[in-house]
Amino acid sequence: MPPSPRRPASRGPAKTAIRQLSWRAPEPAPIVLVSGPEEVCAERAIAGLRDYLKAEDPSLEVSDIRADDYAAGTLLGMASPSLFGEPRLVRVGGVEKCSDAFLTEALAYLENPQDGATIVLRHTGASVRGKKLLDAIRAGTGGGVEIAVPAIKRDADRFDFAAGEFRTAGKRIAPSALRTLVSAFADDLTELAAACQQLISDVPGDIGDQVVERYYGGRVETTAFAVADTAIAGRYGEALITLRHALASGADPVPLVAAIASKLRTMARVAGTREPSAALAARLGMKDWQVDRAKRDLVDWTESALATAIQAAARADAEVKGASRDPVFAVERLVTVIATRAPYGA
């Protein structure tokens, strides 16, 4: 379906002069600021802008500039109309490390944007360099829009990201299959995005647990959360096998312990409450399914056993980060304490 006609950026009130757009639904404007550290989402937004403009006019000229290795006059030269007047897309990277020359010329450009040009400025937020430029854009100078791409770190954020991948593609995936997929790629959003796209393109119809297991079963079996799940469920032998499989596959003890500790902390936050899952999730800033999972995990756990496990996780965390010369033993002992409900220090 052809894209809708280009709409000018809303200028709005002075302090909130530019529109904030989702990275999943980018729209062109004379200036497009893509801000934040999440590179996967930034790349999607910029690629979406290119596709949007290409659909409007296949003769689009695409150019790339580095703001931290900038030659004077480049920005205006690439943005200015060519002999045949093709639309231009200029992608500028490294704005958080921009040179003085780029900063000066970019500020001047905002005062007189070139007709038919879309300038995309990528700023990771890693430094305050270029703040004067960002402030000018956000104040509405140049008629810009902003696409924020904040870091995706929490389990709930990764779950939302993956769910959005399937929703955008019009593909249905079972909630349990989605949770398994997210757990399998908990350490790498790029790989999670690639896995979602592979399932979307390869699998006809709905996606269930068996499909995810067939594609990523080996990965799922060796994740940190698989180790945590089997230990918390009290399946000691399976937990040790899963742990050794993970370590043999190159898993680092630090994220293994972090995953276990994360699940224990979630259990502790949910323990002892009788609130409905939805109300508790809203109060704790969690997802309903996370609360439901924690409640299931708490079956057969006593308050003292949970406290012991949390103490053991804190000890293991210190040991895998240098307090012990044998981090593998530290993780194995933690799994043993949790799976067998052994006394602290066993």
From TrEMBL:
EC number of this enzyme: 2.7.7.7
Q: Which domain of life is it from?
A: Bacteria
> Catalyzes what?
DNA(n) + a 2'-deoxyribonucleoside 5'-triphosphate = DNA(n+1) + diphosphate
Q: Molecular function (GO) terms listed?
A: DNA binding; DNA-directed DNA polymerase activity
UniProt protein name: DNA-directed DNA polymerase
Biological process, per Gene Ontology: DNA-templated DNA replication
Q: Which Gene3D superfamilies match?
A: 1.20.272.10, P-loop containing nucleotide triphosphate hydrolases (3.40.50.300)
How is this protein annotated for GO cellular component? DNA polymerase III complex
Keywords assigned by UniProt, alphabetized? DNA replication, DNA-directed DNA polymerase, Nucleotidyltransferase, Transferase
* Similarity field: Belongs to the DNA polymerase HolA subunit family.
Domain (DNA polymerase III delta subunit-like C-terminal) ranges = 222-335
Q: Which residues form a coiled coil?
A: none
